[in-house]
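Narrative of activities, Objective 1.

The group set out to show that a structural description can be obtained from nothing but a protein's sequence at a throughput compatible with the screening campaign. Below is one input-output pair from the validation batch, recorded exactly as produced.
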Amino acid sequence: MIIEMADFLEQCACIKFCFKLGKTATECYEMLKTVFGEQAMGCSQTFQWFSRFKGGRTSTDDDERSGQPVSSSMPQMIEKVCQIIREDRHRTIDEVSMLVGIIHGTSHKMLIENLKMRRVASKFVPRLPSVDKKQQQLNICLDLKENAANDPSFLLNVIRGDETWV
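Output recorded for this entry:
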């Protein structure tokens, strides 16, 4: 889960506020969960920020980090990766990374986690069908089987792949 930058800064300010009120890190974490719900920082991140303020830090701005910015996993980037794979499912992760302009690991993560795809016989395909989809396919097959058993001419209506149309 990615926390929006505005929410992140707001939560850092809340942690600082709790620290100045004399709350413990655990109390602060529980309060963040109550206020922000699923968008709340994780426990370890909350404790890290609490200890930073305890150590004398006054700024709520995050430290600069090296590496790829978080913007590479934005929905627009995920859509670009999806479009590239739709155009040619035989592309490698390195090709996708180069075309989109992101690192190998990020494009791999987008394909596997965000787009729910996997590599089969050198091309990306959606993962196995869900339980609901399997049940729907089973119901269709049972209906077809029942129709074939009740109507002897039913199979004459089925189009086979070896037929040619004039």
